[in-house]
Design a protein that fits this description.
There is one protein chain. By secondary structure, the protein is an alpha+beta fold. About 25% of the residues lie in helices and about 35% in strands. It has three helices and six strands, in the order αβαβαββββ. A four-stranded antiparallel β-sheet has the order 1-2-6-3. The radius of gyration is 15 Å and the shape is globular.
Length: about 100
């Protein structure tokens, strides 16, 4: 399925762990569940005007949670960790 570049990248993942990884040129994004590494690389390069050297992806499955007596499941989602060419950065706060 062909996705538009703005559908591939949903939002940047701003956590304490990945804020520390930004110094090394690694940035995390929440991406569409069916997006592949090539689509993620092209989308990040076009949106942020940077050169991507590596893309790692991970799927997080939904977890069962209980609210009073009802059971429910949180949403499953996919995260991509993108490594940039040395010396390049992305300003996540402006996104």
């Amino acid at each position: 399925m062909k996705l538009h570049m703005f559908d591939v990248i949903r939002q940047p993942s701003i956590t304490e762990k990945f804020t520390q990884q930004n110094i090394k040129g690694k940035y995390a994004f929440e991406v569409h569940p069916i997006a592949n590494k090539i689509q993620i690389k092209e989308a990040v390069e076009k949106i942020y005007s940077v050169h991507v050297t590596r893309v790692n992806t991970m799927n997080s499955s939904g977890k069962w949670r209980r609210v009073r007596r009802d059971l429910g499941k949180t949403a499953a989602w996919k995260r991509a960790v993108v490594t940039l060419k040395k010396g390049e950065t992305i300003d996540i706060t402006a996104s």
